[in-house]
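Hi V.,

You were right to ask for the full record rather than a summary. Here it is.
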Amino acid sequence: MKLGRKTFSITYTFILVASLFISVAAQAQETYRARLSPMPTTPQTKDTITGEGEVFLTLNGNTLSVSGNYSGMSSVATMAHIHNGPPAQPGPVVAQLVVPASTAGEVTAELELSDELIEALKNNSLYIQIHSETNAPGELRGWVFARN
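Predicted structure:
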């Protein structure tokens, strides 16, 4: 089959525009990760907290998708949050996450972030914390960092 010059030009232009669109869409999506580990909030809880987990976060525009797992907690999870605070410093709750009332399970959420929270995310100033029945101030914690 022989293509005319005009058909080839239109086909080439379509392929070029489609590949640029896919490239821009792929670049707009950023991935992050938080490793959850026992983090005592008081000296009294340092011997009673257990567990681990890993959470993956995907930022697409202003939408942050959160998905991960945790296991081995000393008691059932009661709630989970994203906090705004730089590494090793506590900060206020900025978003609620979904966790089952269990010692192991999934962490999920779909959130719309403000420009301020996107900046905090990119500056490694957000962390995830899972609270439990016996450690209400928090049992597992992990700062969110960009994935390489």
